[in-house]
């Protein structure tokens, strides 16, 4: 519990960036309804704040996934723990994540979602850690910030399930 957290992006900086993304996304989806899909649990804070900055009609659904096999993410296989409530066929889908790290979660998830025949599908992430990428088939359409390979928390990102509720993006300082 005594972890030191250093601020990487302050609440004001994150808010400003989310407003910018909201504006871009609103333009991209003019005349349409954006069907936002939140990847639980990390995506939930970003999803809510981003949704508030989108000016076209928005609907939302939630999905929870976990990695299979060997107990590590490296299997690249994703198990659906909680599926979407609604069909995405014919919808304009925007998948919302807190961070893309190895890319394995999203690589697999985007494949699963694409098979369900959305009219379009885009990916929006608050943070991207390109240095950690292990796959090359994740196309990120909207990124809040590119971050170096540090242990980031806050705004949905956890360290052992803690710190998701920090209103800023921070780094856990290890000594
Ligand atoms: C984290 C994060 C992304 C994923 C990124 O989720 O929220 O969903 O890992 O990692 P990857 O690009 O290497 O696949 P996590 O599995 O920790 O679950 P959580 O969102 O509930 O914290
Ligand atoms: Mn996650
Ligand atoms: Mg996590």
Automatic annotation (TrEMBL):
Keywords from the UniProt entry: Cytoplasm, Glycosyltransferase, Magnesium, Metal-binding, Nucleotide-binding, Purine salvage, Transferase
GO molecular function: guanine phosphoribosyltransferase activity; hypoxanthine phosphoribosyltransferase activity; magnesium ion binding; nucleotide binding
Compartments, record wording: Cytoplasm
Top-level taxon: Bacteria
The UniProt record lists the keyword Glycosyltransferase: yes
Biological process annotations from GO: GMP salvage; guanine salvage; hypoxanthine metabolic process; IMP salvage; purine ribonucleoside salvage
Reaction(s) this enzyme catalyzes, per UniProt: IMP + diphosphate = hypoxanthine + 5-phospho-alpha-D-ribose 1-diphosphate; GMP + diphosphate = guanine + 5-phospho-alpha-D-ribose 1-diphosphate
Pathway annotation from the record: Purine metabolism; IMP biosynthesis via salvage pathway; IMP from hypoxanthine: step 1/1; Purine metabolism; GMP biosynthesis via salvage pathway; GMP from guanine: step 1/1
Cofactor(s) it depends on: Mg(2+)
Residues annotated as domain Phosphoribosyltransferase: 14-159
EC numbers: 2.4.2.8
InterPro entries attached to this UniProt entry: HGPRT, Hxn_phspho_trans, PRTase-like, PRTase_dom
A single GO cellular-component term on record: cytosol
Family that this chain belongs to: Belongs to the purine/pyrimidine phosphoribosyltransferase family.
Function statement: Purine salvage pathway enzyme that catalyzes the transfer of the ribosyl-5-phosphate group from 5-phospho-alpha-D-ribose 1-diphosphate (PRPP) to the N9 position of the 6-oxopurines hypoxanthine and guanine to form the corresponding ribonucleotides IMP (inosine 5'-monophosphate) and GMP (guanosine 5'-monophosphate), with the release of PPi.
Protein name: Hypoxanthine phosphoribosyltransferase
Natural source organism: Anthropogastromicrobium aceti
Phylogenetic classification of the source organism: Bacteria, Bacillati, Bacillota, Clostridia, Lachnospirales
Gene: hpt
């Amino acid at each position: 519990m005594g972890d030191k957290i250093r601020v990487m992006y302050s609440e004001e900086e994150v808010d400003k960036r989310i407003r910018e993304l909201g504006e871009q996304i609103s333009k991209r989806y003019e005349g349409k309804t954006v069907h936002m899909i939140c990847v639980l649990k990390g995506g939930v804070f970003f999803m809510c704040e981003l949704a508030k900055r989108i000016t076209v009609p928005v609907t939302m659904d939630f999905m929870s996934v976990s990695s299979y096999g060997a107990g590590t993410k490296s299997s690249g296989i994703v198990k659906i723990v909680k599926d979407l409530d609604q069909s995405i066929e014919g919808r304009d889908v925007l998948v919302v994540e807190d961070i893309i790290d190895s890319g394995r979660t999203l690589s697999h998830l985007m494949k699963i979602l694409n098979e369900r025949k959305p009219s379009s599908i885009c990916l929006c992430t608050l943070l991207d850690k390109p240095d950690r990428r292990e796959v090359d088939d994740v196309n990120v359409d909207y990124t809040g910030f590119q971050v170096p390979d540090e242990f980031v928390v806050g705004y949905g990102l956890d360290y052992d399930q803690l710190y998701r509720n920090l209103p800023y993006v921070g780094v856990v300082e290890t000594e």
